[in-house]
Amino acid sequence: MKTISCMKIDEQLLKSYSAEIKTYKEKEIIFREGDSPFFYFQIIEGSVKINNYNEEGKEFIHNILGNGQSFGDPMLFIDKQYPVNAVVLKPTTIIRLPRKNFINLIKENPHVSLELNACLSHRLYYKTIMTQNMASHNPIKRITGLFDYLKSYSDCDDTHSFNVKLTRQQIADLTGLRVETIIRTIKKMEKDSLVKVHERKICY
Predict the structure, then answer these.
(1) If DSSP codes are grouped into helix, strand and coil, which group holds residue 158?
(2) Cα separation of 28 and 50, whole Å?
(3) Is the pLDDT reported for residue 4 higher than 70?
(4) What are phi and psi of 182, to 5 degrees?
(5) Range of the domain at 186
C-alpha cells in the first residue's frame, strides 16, 4: 500500500499567525463533544485519543494521534459542533491557532490550503475503506482495515515498517472486537506473516 503522510503545518508559520503552545496532562480533555471549534490543533509531542460514547456509555475510539498530527480540522470549515472528544493519553504539547487566524493563514498561503485539502481527502478515503472493513465478520479484515487506516497517516510504505502504537485493548475498542479475539487474531496474523511481533510490539 502506498501511503501519503498528511501534512504538518510549519510551526514557525503557525506562530507567525499568533499560534500558542499549550501543555496538557494525561486524561485532560482538549475539547468535548458538543463544543464549538475555536482552534486548529497540531501535536508537537504526545498522544491524543479521539472518541465518543454511545447511549449505553460504551466508548468508541475513532483514532489515536501522535507527533506532528493535527485533529479537529474539518470542523473549522463548517458551522458545526464537535461530534467527538479529544482526550490526552499521556503528557502532550500542542500548538494551537485560533480559528480566524487559521482561516487567514490558508487564504494567504494557497499551498497550505491545497495540501490541507489533499490531506482531508486522504483521511476521508481511508476512513471509508476502514468503515467498509468494519462491517466484515472476519476479525483479520477488521484489524487490517484499521492498520491500513493508521498507516495511511505515516511515511511507512514497506511491509512491516509501521509500528502500531496501540495496546490490544485499544485495538479492540477501535474495531469493536473483544480483546481476547484481538490477541488470538494477532497471533494468527503473525503466523501468516501479515504482521511481525517483537516484545509485544506490532509491526504492520
Answers:
(1) coil
(2) 12
(3) no
(4) -60, -50
(5) 136-203
